[in-house]
Amino acid sequence: MNMRDTEYARLCAYVNFDDDDRARLRALWPVVAPQAASVVDHFYACIEASEDAWRIFTGPDQVARLKRTLRQWLEEALSGPWDHAYVARRERIGQAHLRVGLQQHYMYTAMSVILDDVKRIARCALPPADVGPTCDALQRALLLDLALMNGSYLVSHEHRGQQRVRRVLLENLRATALVVGPSGEVVAGTRAAEALAGGDGLSGLAWQDVFPAELVGPIATAISARVETILPRIAVGRRTFLAHVVPLKDVDAAHLIQVEELTDTLNLEARVQRTETLAQLGTLAAAVAHEVRNPLAGISGALQVIAADSASHRHAGVMQKVVGEVHRLDQLVNELLSYARPTPAKPGPTDLRAAVDSALQLRNDLEIEVAVRGAGAGQADPDKLSQILLNLVNNAEQAGAARVVIEIEPDSIIVTDNGPGVPPALRDTLFDPFVTGRSRGTGLGLAISRQAADAMGGRLDLVPWSEGGGAAFRLELSAV
Question: Which parts of the chain have pLDDT scores under 70?
Fold first, then answer.
């Protein structure tokens, strides 16, 4: 006996519907059977008199079919057997009423019509001593049927309401979220999740088919743990996601999977952090400019005079080296000020090929081969674009590369070289100030370049590159 049968047995005990009642109903059915058609016709006559109840019917064929079903129901109610299949059929009737849109109160009024008709037949056909007990048994049996049908109706109605609310919620959430069934199939999903899956609908798909492969493994591990889990910062290429897995206690829904992209948030955090660093460097730069730059200019001027007067002196070479080092320190101060106090960008529609050619003309002393390919346009500030390109080319030249290729695409420029490449230990901090792989580099060139890209609304990144070794940088710009 399953849980449903157990509950039905409890209901029977609660209203004292026992074997004596069942025996009286079995004896009643042969009396009612000859008049069952009139009971059924009266039942549907009452329905037809109600405009609200009658509107659910589609035509005479449906009514004729339902009349046969009602007669069968009446026969079962009076003759049994009152078993598992009997209970299941009553529950299906309640579900059918909900499905066709018949309001719940019509079950009570309809049952009252049948009860009155069958009682009338019993009073006319049974011995007076049997009428009362038989009618009591009849009332208990039909009320039990009503309880089964009404209970099923309410459960189905609640389930449908939950599904409707769930659907409204999911369809209007901007987040990427899925409700996953017990077998791993998608029960429902937000529009953002549909877009992630290609926009062809989600119902019935395996949840693994919705997300990128990099997300599937961590989410599957969280599902197997059967506890609420937050998976922060899962990398999918250049994008970063957070996944939230919540077990659900629902017969149709096993898990809720919510995925949130953090890429923009992390980029914003990085920009805020760079802005804070910039503010600190601004204070430092002001101090450097006051305490170092002016004395350095005086030292440089004095050394140039001394070097000119002692051109034939045996220490003339040493003096020239000192002048060179002073010049290098002055260049460091200039780069620091450039990073700490950048000029505002003025991005606009730019022919990228023309801008690249113009930038390269500023360095006619390059000892490295530079090849330019492709064409495109993007939102850029020509001066800052030139600054970025020359920094990248200079870095390649100073790293020992013999060749640089500048590949222009719509909205982006890719700069590759055949030098030694970027050491793995530097890749995560390459764009931080004062990070350099050269013994005499200032470590500000790439930091200034990324800052310039950000100011134009673009993005400068190191990208994977294996062809011929070397390094590759991608400058992405906003579309025109």
Answer: 1-4, 102, 166, 170, 199-200, 274, 278-279, 281-282, 285-286, 288-290, 307-316, 340, 436-443, 466-468
Q: Which amino acid is at 88?
A: A
CA quadruple 202, 208, 214, 218: dihedral sign: positive
CA distance 142 to 152: 15
Q: The domain at 348-476 falls in which architecture? A: 2-Layer Sandwich (3.30)
Closest CA to 244 of 180, 297, 317: 180
Burial of 419 (0-12, 13-18, 19+ CB in 10 A): buried
Average pLDDT, the chain: 83
Residues whose CB falls within 8 Å of the CB of residue 216, separated by 6 or more in sequence, listed in order: 208
Distance CA 191, CA 173 (A): 7
- Write down the CATH superfamily of domain 3-167: Globins (1.10.490.10)
173-261 in CATH: which number?
Answer: 3.30.450.20
Domain ranges (residues) in the chain: 3-167, 173-261, 267-340, 348-476
Give, in order, the Cα–Cα distances in Å from 294 to each of 291, 301, 339: 7, 11, 19
Global pTM value: 0.45
Which strands sit side by side in the sheet containing 369-374, from one edge to the other? Answer: 369-374, 403-409, 412-417, 472-476, 459-462
